[in-house]
Amino acid sequence: MSGFDWPGLLRLALGRLGLQPEAFWRLTPAEFVLMLGEPTVARPLDRSRLEELARLWPDRPGQAEGE
After folding, report:
1. Where in the chain are the domains?
2. Is the C or the N end of the chain the one with fewer CB within 10 Å?
């Protein structure tokens, strides 16, 4: 048995989102989370974060900041 609270998820879908049961079961997990608008979902990588990561972990060894 999985660790998912399927009854709880179904209650969210039917109550909070107003979905019909068959619509809930057709959703992918990503679609369901998107519909819930949960703030804990990771945001897409933006340019400034990408540049920060590139500085911290460059493609060539020995070129990270502080080395």
Report:
1. 6-56
2. N
